[in-house]
Amino acid sequence: ADLVRVGAYWKCPNRRGCPSQNIEWLFAFASRGAMDIEGLGYKTGLLLIERGWVKDPADLYSITDQQLAELPGHKEKKISNLRRSIEASKDRLLWRLLVALNIPHVGSHMAEVLADAFGSIDRLSEASVDDLEAVDEVGPIVARAVHEWFQDRGNRKLLDKLRKAGIRMADPPKKKTKAGPLTGKSIVLTGGL
User: Fold this and answer.
1) Poorest-pLDDT segment among 97-101, 152-156, 158-162, 176-180
2) Which H/E stretch holds residue 9?
3) Is 86 exposed, middle or buried (0-12, 13-18, 19+ CB in 10 A)?
């Protein structure tokens, strides 16, 4: 695709059809700060994409042991470890999924802010730009980027595939804490300790 200028940067708009962007997206999805799929490195990711078995990160959850056995260097133990890691990634907290989705302007801190504010992918996907801006720490650029990401048909299809694969789409309700003498108060210590 032809590059387009976005602010000071040139960008490739062909996110889903660009092999280079696909491998980077897959690697970012599986990284420690996101879904933490141990054993899914560049080599394995490249092979999965080259063979056409993975077109987007959701396809990881439908890879079979037989397919993995066809990859060079993938013996029983490596396959078992990768399979276990892929399964464990299904139960990550919501903020980690938000990081893994590679939403523009949403890093780990912003993902935690959004996960705390909305609690589920469904509530977040239904949020308007105004709803997003009402969240403390979310400005107009982030609000617009998040809203647009969830309006994209391809992203909605990805979320459906992830949901069907069994990925957790909401955080468990937070436990309510009892009010104590310091609830709602800030304590500031000054001077040398």
Assistant:
1) 176-180
2) strand 9-11
3) buried
CA-wise closest residue to 163 among 113, 90, 76, 84: 90
Alpha helices in 76-152 (DSSP H): 76-88, 94-100, 108-118, 121-126, 129-133, 140-151
* Count helices and strands in the chain by DSSP H and E runs: 10, 2
Sign, Cα dihedral of 29, 31, 34, 37: positive
- Average of per-residue pLDDT across 42-66: 92
Q: What is the pLDDT of residues 20-36, one digit of tens each?
A: 788 888 999 999 999 99
Instruction: With both helix axes pointing from N to C terminus, report the angle between 42-50 and 19-30 in degrees, rounded to the nearest 10.
Output: 130
Torsion region of 7: left, alpha or beta (phi above 0 gives left; psi -120 to 50 gives alpha)? left
Q: Are 104 and 116 in contact (CB under 8 A)?
A: no
